């Protein structure tokens, strides 16, 4: 199975201080034993950096970028170019906050992937919530 990580899943896997880090690491261990491949896109990476710097977990953008690269290497996360143009948004989009989730779900579906998330509000067959 291939998984596209949303911001919440990527941060939980990569930041040891995240409240869901333990859950995410357990999910990762099982998924990797089953041959899962993980991917991020520009949106996932930008969200990771934005949260690390914005929340004060790291002092600056350069440090956040370094952490991002180290996490990607240590967990063996590949990069998926965002090649899904925004032509329409799914009916599930109700608020502005839903737009990024909907786009990531569409990108995952277009590449026969699951969207890995912590967000139980993402209502799409492509989404898989870390238990």
Care to describe what's here?
The protein has 5 helices and 5 strands; from the N terminus they run βααβααβαββ. With 131 residues, it is α/β, with parallel strands linked by helices. The protein has a single domain (2-129), classed as Rossmann fold (3-Layer(aba) Sandwich). It is globular, with a radius of gyration of 14 Å.
List its salient traits.
single chain; 131 residues; alpha/beta; Rossmann fold; 5-stranded parallel beta sheet; 5 helices; 5 strands
What is this structure, in a nutshell?
The protein has 131 residues and is an alpha/beta fold. It has five helices and five strands; from the N terminus they run βααβααβαββ. The protein has helices spanning 7-14, 21-33, 42-54, 61-75, 98-110; strands at residues 2-5, 37-40, 77-79, 114-117, 127-129.
């Amino acid at each position: 199975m291939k998984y596209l990580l949303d911001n919440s899943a990527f941060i939980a896997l990569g930041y040891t201080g995240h409240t869901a880090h333990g859950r995410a690491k357990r999910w990762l261990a099982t998924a990797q034993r089953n041959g899962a491949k993980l991917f991020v896109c520009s949106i996932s990476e930008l969200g990771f950096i934005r949260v690390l710097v914005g929340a004060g977990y790291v002092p600056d953008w350069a440090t956040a970028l370094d952490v991002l690269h180290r996490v990607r290497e240590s967990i063996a996360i590949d990069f998926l170019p965002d090649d899904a143009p925004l032509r329409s948004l799914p009916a599930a989009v109700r608020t502005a906050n839903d737009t990024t989730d909907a786009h990531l779900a569409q990108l995952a579906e277009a590449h026969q992937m699951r969207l890995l998330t912590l967000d139980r509000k993402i209502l799409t067959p492509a989404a898989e919530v870390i238990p």
